[in-house]
Amino acid sequence: MNATNLSTRLQRVANYVDQGAIVADIGSDHAYLPCYLVLSNKVTTAFAGEVVLGPFESAMEEVRRNQLEHAITVRLADGLLAVQPEDQVNTVTIAGMGGPLIASILSKGLSRLPSVQKLIVQPNIHAKAIREWAIQNGWKLTAEEILEEDAKIYEILVLKKGVMTLSEKEKWLGPFLLAEKSPAFLTKWNKEKKSLQSILMSVENAEQTTELEIKKKEILQKLQWLKEEL
Fold this sequence. Notes:
The chain is α/β, with parallel strands linked by helices. It contains 9 helices and 7 strands. The chain has a 7-stranded mixed beta sheet, sandwiched between helices. One of its GO terms (biological process) is methylation.
């Protein structure tokens, strides 16, 4: 993968960026995504944020290699601290992390989001945490996508400011993904169903405690949802 040949998951993230957007890519790693967006003439200004020195230096090198210093600013900063008010960023991308970490980054960086109109996030696991964050902080889903790449399954969530209510089932499975039930969706949740059935068996064979009873109830509820949807 490089700035002209993205992985499928990053290409799908890029597809949701509006023409002419001002983008901040948080946890940018090699800055492949912002470089691609500029090289493909989708955006003219982008920012790449990295909190770790090694990836920050890799991002700087990639920007230099593609001669994009005029268009892309790379910053060593924690999360959304890479975004400054004068940047006028209207789109934030965060890809390749767990859902709870992405939600934490968004929560800690709320003061950097006033000018942001769109969030495009790609959690590797636990996307539910982002849906819950959105409900609590005045954002709503406008699109969701699930895809399989290299035997791994990824979700992409697109959010804009607004009010949203979701059922517990929708928070877990994703309202747009539930409606579509794509092959990747079915693959993911059939695998999860088998895992939950195995965990349930272990719980039932263990000495019962109040904590285990609560866990058993949660598992049974999830299995019921999957029975309804798969």
